[in-house]
Design goal:
The complex is a heterodimer.
Chain A: E1 5-7, H1 11-15, H2 18-30, E2 35-36, H3 46-50, H4 54-68, E3 73-76, H5 79-92, H6 98-109, E4 111-113, H7 114-121, E5 130-137, H8 141-146, H9 151-158, E6 161-165, H10 181-184, H11 186-202, E7 207-210, H12 213-225, E8 231-234, H13 235-240
Parallel strand pairs in A: 1-2, 1-3, 3-4, 5-6, 5-7, 7-8
Chain B: H1 3-6, H2 8-18, H3 20-43, H4 49-62, H5 64-77, E1 81-85, H6 88-101, E2 106-109, H7 113-118, H8 120-126, E3 130-133, H9 136-143, H10 160-170, H11 179-196, E4 199-202, E5 206-208, E6 213-218, H12 222-228, E7 232-238, E8 242-243, H13 246-261, E9 268-272, E10 286-292, H14 296-301, H15 316-320, H16 324-327, H17 338-349, H18 355-359, H19 366-370, H20 377-390, H21 402-415, H22 418-431, H23 450-453, H24 466-486
Parallel strand pairs in B: 1-10, 2-3, 2-4, 4-7, 5-8, 7-10
Antiparallel strand pairs in B: 5-6, 6-9
Helix pairs in contact in B: 3-13, 4-13, 10-11, 17-20
Classes of the chains: A alpha/beta, B alpha/beta.
Chain lengths: 248, 488
């Protein structure tokens, strides 16, 4: 029997890309992993933290720790949120009692990014997914540089039936999202995402995928404005696809 | 006034993005040196070097008073002069006095960012002295009355055609765009000036306390001439640019030339300091070392930012940063551009004044990975943002944006309660309806959100968030195991 997974469905997935959350549920069900979803969860606090609003971020973090503390394994379809919980929560609570800091650290240690959990914890690389298309993978910053996750999603993608993984140039270069950065400095952000899109298009891929919907939302937004045909899909959606089941 | 006009950073960033010549230069330098440095760190045999050097840098910084006094003693013992300048004005005034006392007419300079930091050239020129940059890149910048745009490659924003035209006009030579010819032309022009100069002013890559020497790294040979031929040699150093021992220095030098240009060693490394000794074939009559504080001791005293003083000024972070790679150096409006400049400029020159530098990065973390001494610039950018969010009297910083602060306070209220958060989402879902285009994307939004839709579309909020889908579709199946947390 697998450890029960507590779903941490980051706010953008909850509100804009619920299908990504559902895809994650589908994958776990197929693997017979028991699931729970704390209905009271909202946001991990990352947007405030990255903008410098540490007090506000702390309030969100304290709430997160309370809600998820009893979980055995917390899994999230977003690298940057996991990075927030694992690496920035301890910084946020550096002035707290040692007891609380240990609790925060323990929550961070039990918090996993989706592709990481599948490969490194469950030891699964083949979910029996089928996705006959040319797909390019974007490495998001906090996932790759913060958590060191780059190979795990690629391994999962390579085991998807019919999927041809085509690497783009500079897949590890930032897409230009950066939270409030993208609205405070739109011209810089756009110049960055344009490079990303040029690199994606150059691969001839039908889809671009990744493990962070925030980057994907940025890329999708610019692809759409440029009327580019490449489609955006979260890795969970690919892994949830099966032959003959063309969901969305 | 539009938002862009209000922010020099945004205005100059836009200019940089639109400048094709700059874009091509940036692409070349990033593809070669930024990626090259990452590759080198990944492949290097001595994996511990970076950590060892970082450790020795931090130890030196923690004992900086002792190390600097050892340096000063050794330089003075060799007959050199040492001056500790608390402020930029103080430093400039000392340099001016040395030059005036020695009736200097012509000053040659080796590349020095500190001289730009303190604004030295204009003061010397106002005294009627001729000031000439001898580093090829800086010479080109000076001829064009331009500003450097990179720490190591100051004229990365120019191509050889532009430089050819500049030389044709200013050096009165036939137009050429061949680098060897242009270099020869610069060399001819500079040699004459170097031979006649009375004073050489250089920066200081590193000073070595143990030996009382400063080391200067160059690939052109201009440093050797600037430091040995004029009567006076004056070196400017930020107080942090010191190694305690030659052995510390060795590691720093190795990382500097690797980080800067993938070189095992630069063409020249000059160790100088002190006037000519009996029997020396050349060397200056007087040597002055100006140790410049100008805000550095305040950084040193703050544990959150001390680490930034470990910087060896190699410029590797500029070569990897995707923001710098788009906007170029001029947008930073500081002698210190790029990621390192985004942290150091606010700390030295004012956090509010340089607020755009604190906030204008995507926090991708590439600078931390490429930094030879692993300086955590993203961490410090966040720390600077915190000061702007709440203000900090210790750093004379006031709250940067009230509206943004109010926004995050509201956000805090919403995310503190599941029901409030979901209600807000529902309201936003209704409000967005008129904005959704036929394609299903939002193409235009109002207020601050319009910055997003300027160049990008936005996928709309889903009609049913995951939380509700879970409740409807999945919660029954999971109920047996989830009840205790579901109600939490």
């Amino acid at each position: 029997m697998h450890t029960k997974v507590t779903l941490f469905v980051q706010c953008l997935v909850d509100s804009i890309y619920p299908r990504v959350g559902e895809a994650m549920v589908e994958v776990f069900r197929r693997l017979k992993v028991p699931l729970e979803y704390p209905a009271d969860q909202t946001c991990c606090g990352q947007p405030a933290f990255n903008a410098g609003y540490a007090k506000e971020a702390r309030a969100a973090a304290r709430r997160f720790v309370r809600i998820f503390e009893s979980a055995e394994a917390i899994v999230c379809p977003s690298g940057s949120c996991v990075h927030m919980v694992r690496h920035h929560y301890p910084e946020l609570f550096a002035d707290e009692s040692i007891d609380y800091r240990m609790r925060v650290k323990a929550v961070g240690n039990r918090c996993y990014e989706f592709s990481e959990y599948l490969t490194d914890v469950l030891g699964v690389v083949n979910i029996g997914a089928s996705f006959p298309a040319k797909v390019s993978y974007h490495d998001s910053c906090h996932l790759l540089r913060g958590l060191g996750i780059g190979e795990q999603p690629r391994t999962l993608l390579r085991h998807v039936e019919g999927l041809q993984l085509v690497e783009m140039d500079d897949s590890d270069v930032c897409c230009g999202f950066g939270g409030t950065f993208s609205v405070n400095y739109p011209e810089i952000s756009t110049a960055m995402v344009d490079d990303k899109i040029d690199n994606i298009v150059a691969t001839g891929a039908d889809y671009v995928t990744g493990c962070d919907v925030s980057c994907l939302m940025n890329i999708e937004g610019r692809l759409s404005r440029r009327n580019t045909k490449v489609k955006v899909v979260h890795i969970a959606e690919i892994l949830a696809s099966r032959a003959g089941h063309n969901d969305e | 006034m539009s938002d862009v006009e209000k922010s020099a950073y945004r205005r100059d960033a836009r200019r940089g993005i639109d400048d094709e010549c700059l874009q091509s230069g940036l692409q070349k330098i990033q593809n070669r040196f930024g990626k090259g440095a990452m590759h080198y760190w990944a492949e290097t045999a001595d994996d511990g070097l970076r950590d060892r050097v970082k450790k020795s840098r931090m130890e030196t910084l923690e004992n900086l008073d002792v190390v600097l006094s050892m340096l000063a003693d050794n330089i003075e013992a060799a007959g050199g002069h040492v001056y500790y300048a608390r402020t930029a004005e103080d430093a400039v005034d000392y340099c001016r006095r040395v030059a005036v006392k020695n009736e200097v007419k012509s000053v040659v300079k080796g590349k020095s960012m500190t001289s730009a930091e303190i604004g030295l050239d204009a003061v010397l020129e106002a005294e009627g002295m001729e000031v000439t940059e001898t580093d090829l890149g800086e010479f080109i910048i000076q001829l064009g009355e331009d500003r450097p745009s990179h720490i190591i490659a100051p004229c990365i924003h120019l191509d050889r055609q532009r430089i050819g035209r500049l030389f044709q006009e200013k050096l009165d030579i036939p137009y050429s765009e061949e680098p060897p010819e242009l270099t020869q032309a610069a060399r001819r022009a500079l040699r004459k000036i170097l031979l006649e100069a009375d004073m050489g002013i250089t920066g200081c890559n590193f000073a070595v306390a143990e030996t009382g020497k400063i080391s200067l790294v160059s690939n052109e040979g201009n440093i050797r001439m600037s430091t040995t031929m004029p009567r006076i040699h004056l070196a400017l150093m930020g107080i942090e640019r010191v190694a305690a021992t030659m052995s510390d220095h060795q590691g720093m030098l190795q990382l500097l030339t690797r980080g800067a240009a993938l070189q095992k060693l630069s063409t020249y490394v000059s160790f100088v300091g002190g006037p000519r000794q009996p029997g020396d074939p050349d060397g200056p009559e007087e040597f002055h070392l100006v140790m410049i504080d100008n805000g550095r001791s305040r950084i040193l005293a703050d544990e959150e930012f001390r680490e930034v003083l470990a910087c060896i000024r190699c410029g590797a972070c500029l070569n990897i940063c995707p923001v710098y790679g788009k906007i170029g150096g001029h947008a930073y409006n500081s002698p210190y551009p790029g990621p390192i400049g985004a942290v150091v400029s606010p700390l030295l020159f004012g956090i509010n004044r340089y607020a755009d530098l604190c906030k204008g990065e995507s926090l991708c973390g590439a600078c931390l990975d490429v930094c030879p001494v692993r300086i955590d610039l993203p961490r410090m950018l966040l720390a600077l943002r915190r000061k702007l969010a709440y203000g900090d009297p210790a750093w004379q910083t006031t709250r940067h944006k009230w509206l943004e602060a109010m926004g995050f306070r509201l956000w805090r209220t919403l995310i503190a309660s599941g029901p409030a958060y979901r209600l807000a989402l529902r309201c936003a879902g209704l409000l967005q309806k008129p904005f959704i285009s036929k394609s299903g994307m939002i193409k235009k939004m109002a207020g601050p959100a319009s910055a997003w839709t300027r160049d990008r579309d936005l996928p709309p909020l889903a009609s049913e968030p995951f939380s509700r889908r879970w409740k409807k579709k999945y919660s029954q199946a999971a109920k047996a195991t989830s009840s205790e947390v579901d109600n939490g």
